[in-house]
Amino acid sequence: MKLLRCPKCGGKLEAITYEDIEVDRCCQCNGIWFDSSEADNLKQLKGSENIDIGRLRDNQKEVLDTDIPCPHCHIAMVKMFDLDKHPIWYETCPQCQGIWFDAGEFKKFKDNFSRPKLLSRALNFFRLKK
Ligand SMILES: [Zn+2]
Ligand SMILES: [Zn+2]
Questions:
Q1: Could you tell me the residue ranges of all domains in the chain?
Q2: How far is the CA of 92 from the centre of ligand 2 (A)?
């Protein structure tokens, strides 16, 4: 097995498996690497946020002017901004479509998709008010 290095801190990525989906988590900073469709598959699984054991540091600044290399392809990843309930920055590889989440970001990423429920609740609320 090829040893993957964390694109952010250089720590070792170790494979962890959740419901037959394997992802790679950094044993230093707890960032998580997802192959192309893994993040989409995982966010639909109940309890999958438990793979994200790290805490998002509040004072963490995204380094926007530094290229973060894909741990597989070693080319610069593209920064994505998810402006949702929880705004998060994450990196995605234009070649293998893998996604990198810093510790704590996958939880938020997943939580962003529970939004339709919140939205309809808000709409109902406004309807009631009228
Ligand atoms: Zn790391
Ligand atoms: Zn890649």
A1: 13-129
A2: 8
